[in-house]
Amino acid sequence: MANIVWCNIAVFLLVLLFLADNTIVVLDALHNVPNNIKNQPYRTGYHFQPPKNWMNDPNGPMIYKGIYHLFYQWNQNGAVMDVNEIVWGHATSTDLINWITLSPAIKPSRPSDINGCWSGSATILTNGKPVILYTGNDRYNRQVQNLAKPKNLTDPYLRQWTKSPENPLVTPNAANHINSTAFRDPTTAWLGRDKRWRITTGSQEGRRGLAILHTSRDFVRWKQSPKPLHYHDGTGIWECPDFFPVSRTDSRGLDTSSSAGPMIKHVLKVSLTDTFRDYYTIGTYDEVRDVYVPDKGFVQDETAPRYDYGKFYASKTFYDSVNQRRILWGWVNESSPEKDNIKKGWAGLQAIPREVWLDKSGKRLVQWPVKEIERLRTTQVKWENKVLKGGGSVIEVHGVIRASQADVEVFFKVSGLDLEKADVIEPGWTDPQLICSQKNASFVNSGLGPFGLMVLASKNMEEYTSVNFRIFRARGKSKEHVVVMCSDQSRSSLEKGNDKTTYGAFVDISPYQPISLRTLIDKSIVESFGGKGKTCITSRVYPKLATGERTHLFAFNKGSQNVDILSLSAWSMKSSL
Question: What are the Glycosyl hydrolase family 32 N-terminal domain coordinates in residue numbering (predicted)?
Answer without folding.
Answer: 47-369
